[in-house]
Amino acid sequence: MTDQPTLDDVAAVAGVSAKTVSNVLLERPHVAAATRERVRAAVESVGYRVNRAGRGLASGRSGRIAVVVPKLYQPYFAEIAERLIVALGAAGFSCTLRIAPDAAAERDAVLGITTADADGVVICPHGLSAALLQGRRPERPVVQIGGGPTGLVDVVVMGERDGFEAVTRHLLDSGRRRLALVWNSTGSGRPEGARYEAFLAAHRARGLEPDPALMAAGSDWDRRVSGYEATTGLLRSGAVFDAVVAINDALAVGAMRALRSHGVRVPEDVAVTGFDDTDEAGFTIPPLTSVSPEQEEMVATAVRMLIERLDGLEAPAREHLTGAHLVPRASSGARPLV
Fold first, then answer.
1. Please, which contacts does 212-217 make with residues 24 or more away whose CB atoms are closer than 8 Å?
2. What is the pTM of this model?
3. Which of 31, 196, 248, 332 could bridge to 289 as Cys pair (CB 3.0-4.6 Å)?
4. CATH number of this structure's domain 160-292, picked from the four choices 3.40.190.10, 3.60.10.10, 3.40.50.2300, 1.10.8.60
5. pLDDT tens-digit series, residues 121-133
């Protein structure tokens, strides 16, 4: 046998033809149950690995998955896209990377309007919702990473509430009391969502209320310049604060730049934290305390859920909640990680 077992190797062990092996792997009908079991046992015995791209050609599939993100200049989405492409490649799929910059583009990607060449979609959305999809289930497998569940597609739910509550507790427990929230602009003009709810919960658990005057949003929550703008606005307002809790790492990096520009020391005068634990967080000066949403687990779970759908799983839309953990570094006064 060769180092990489073939269909012929499986056929020889199972005592059937290579065509029968192919029929079993393609889940075609008219193969006896006993024969199917014998072929599957032979597959396990010889360690045969299904070439999904090749199987796709035989079954009318493209072997291609669309990876959809809202933007690539935000480090988190760039890292998630790369992790997905690598993981899907290891599973035998090729990938098409697509940018969906607004809710309408996300809807079109999920419903297959702009992803008709793909067997399935993995999307990291900003604005996807059940209302946006108007109750329509996509015709091909779709898995969502992050964002609110729609009840229409499988979703890997980020542990953002637990993670943001942990980073807020970390600052409060270190003695900081005037926490500025640098957040993403919303349609209501007020902070909202799981991270904001966690920010409130951490304060209220200690009998505190955050100061609304210490909440600022930049023009685009995914750009470093937005963190710079929001923090500069707080500084110019004369507001007194001893920590900046940024909604993500990109805003935190901008906030650190603004503080340095105004002669404010980090963390001696003002602590700074982010969220996403991007590679950049470990290389800022000082290194940035952040929250890891455990991207590796999110990607592995999303790929598994997608493959299960491609392999014929019929079930209501599923939700899988991943973890999140604090990564303390010097920007919050924590000891640097070894």
1. 213/237, 213/239, 214/178, 214/179, 214/180, 214/181, 214/239, 214/241, 215/180, 215/181, 215/183, 215/191, 216/180, 216/181, 216/182, 216/183, 217/182, 217/183, 217/184, 217/185, 217/186, 217/191
2. 0.77
3. 332
4. 3.40.50.2300
5. 999 998 888 888 9
